[in-house]
Amino acid sequence: MDCLRKKFPPAQQGSGPLVGVQIDLLVPQHNFHCVDEPEKVTCADGQPPAAEKTTRRLHEKYGPVLRTSPNEVTCASPEAIKLIYRTQHPLNKTEFYTPWNTQNFSKHRDAFTEINDKRHGERRRIVNHVYSLANILKSEKYIDLCSQIFLSRLEAFAASQQAVDLGEWFQMYAFDVIGELYFGRMFGFMEKSHDHGNWIQSLDLLMPFLCMTSVAPSYMRPLILSSALVVPGSIKALKAVDTIGTAAREVVSKRFNIGVTPEHERRADVLQQLYDIHEEKGAKVDFKMGDIEQEAYVALLAGSDTTAIAFRSVFYNLMKNPDVYAALLEEIDMAVDDGRLHFPVSYAEAARLPLLCACIKEALRVHPGVQLILPRISPPEGLELCGTFVPPGYTVGVNGAVVHFDKSVFGPDADQYRPSRWLEDKEKATNMDRYMLHFGAGTRTCIGKNISLAEIHKLVPEVLRKFKFEMWNQDAQWKTHNFWFCKQTGLKVKVTKRDVC
Q1: Which residues are annotated as a binding site?
Q2: b/e map of 279-317 (b: 16 or more CB within 10 Å)?
Q3: What are the φ/ψ torsions at residue 253 (nearest 5 degrees)?
Q4: How many CB atoms lie within 10 A of CB 107?
Q5: Which range (21-30, 190-199, 288-297, 482-491) has the least confidence?
Q6: Closest Cα partner for 321 from 352, 355, 347, 350?
Q7: Model-level pTM?
Q8: Of 2-6, 236-240, 271-275, which one has max mean pLDDT?
Q9: Can you give the residue ranges of every domain in the chain?
Q10: What cofactors does the UniProt entry give for this protein (predicted)?
Q11: Is there a smaller number of Cβ atoms within 10 Å at the N or the C end of the chain?
Q12: By the 8 A CB rule, do 151 and 269 touch?
């Protein structure tokens, strides 16, 4: 693939330069290869740099448009978001997403893996109201149940003064919230202090294979998937993921095959509202029990990772920036003293704390959950990106971990964590928000984002009010692992109970 510095064939050229970089099948392992000018860069620890950081550096070196394979283009321009993820005549997703559909619940694909935007829109409209913020907040009491267990575990950690893997506990919390909202009960991650069904470990094992399969040409996919069978633990992981699918089927069957539930016993959770759709208009819109099972399964497969990644970024960046941490504590304490914040914390009260909201947004900016491009197919008429014409059928996309650091949008210090940027000017903050990709963009914005935002806004101030967090090793840095979801490890902390009422 000798595409470095080459333009498209003459009929496909645009006015701007097109620099190409070959990214081989080891994208998830962060190895980028430039054929004419190999990029042999290593980090201080001798390892290759993370994919997202390498992509940023290559864009800085070669410009906003890079050809990363013979038929794939990535763009670093913030303005490309409006073109690639547009809401009018939206672009279809690519085949990247199809391997993520690992179960056959319904003849309809789920919202994440449906590549045809028209079909996606038809199916999403059926359930959209269930995922509105106002509707999700009807289930706040179920999130509060999970928060109380999380707080009780922190009490024990504070008493023992042992090192705590806070990142792992955030993932267990997120799993248990999904259990409450979709399965009618927590799974017991936090109560039993362990990885229920080895689900976390199993997803960690499978994500690299799913990611490599997704970026690979279609003819290579069977080989990659079959190679997973010889990797230690992968068969066990596949079985564990199957148990997630089984759990989704069983909970729907158990909840709704026992007859009509009296109104006073009905849970105001996501599962019940999905079932109400099935009962009220299921035949009309073809929304069957399998579609309910599919919604629960996808929430488990993707929802816990993205929320846990956000939690880790919030707390890691606070601990690494003690001045911001202190200012946020002051805001929370004052809100409690003034009667503006009560416990359990409601989303409505938390959303009125400006610095809290700024810290959450900044954490999502500097470390979005997904840190590869969100790929789409260039339309039949082609697409012009920064003066470069991209032919029809090419894969195009923007990486949030690149565009979130654009200095023209986020300021000259865009590479720094500084929550106050969101508080300086309302118009500027609104403009920055337009270029945030942490929950996707356009017609494919993450359907579960309001669940994640509710969890984060509610838990963060309550936890910070009651406990102090410090890195166990003050000089330690987390490690990131980019398999589309960019997960962090190494968030070992010391927990101390604060002397507050």
Answers
A1: 446
A2: eeebeebebbbbbbbbbbbbbbbbbbbbbbbbbbbbbbb
A3: -65, -45
A4: 9
A5: 21-30
A6: 355
A7: 0.91
A8: 271-275
A9: 10-497
A10: heme
A11: C
A12: no
414 alpha carbon, distance to own chain's centre: 21
Nearest alpha-carbon partner for 453 in 371, 357, 387: 357
Hey, what amino acid is at 360? I
The candidate with the shortest Cα–Cα distance to 76, out of 399, 362, 364, is: 399
Binding residues for heme: 446
What residue type is assigned to position 394 of the chain? Y
User: Which CATH number does the domain 10-497 belong to among 2.40.50.140, 1.10.630.10, 3.30.70.360, 1.10.10.10?
Assistant: 1.10.630.10
The string of pLDDT tens digits covering residues 172-214 is 999 999 999 999 999 999 999 999 988 998 888 888 888 888 9
CA distance 473 to 110: 42
Distance CA 43, CA 46 (A): 5
Where does 384-435 have alpha helices with state H?
A: 400-403, 407-410, 426-434
Cβ contacts of 322-328, under 8 Å, gap ≥ 24: 324/359, 324/417, 324/419, 327/355, 328/355, 328/356, 328/359, 328/464
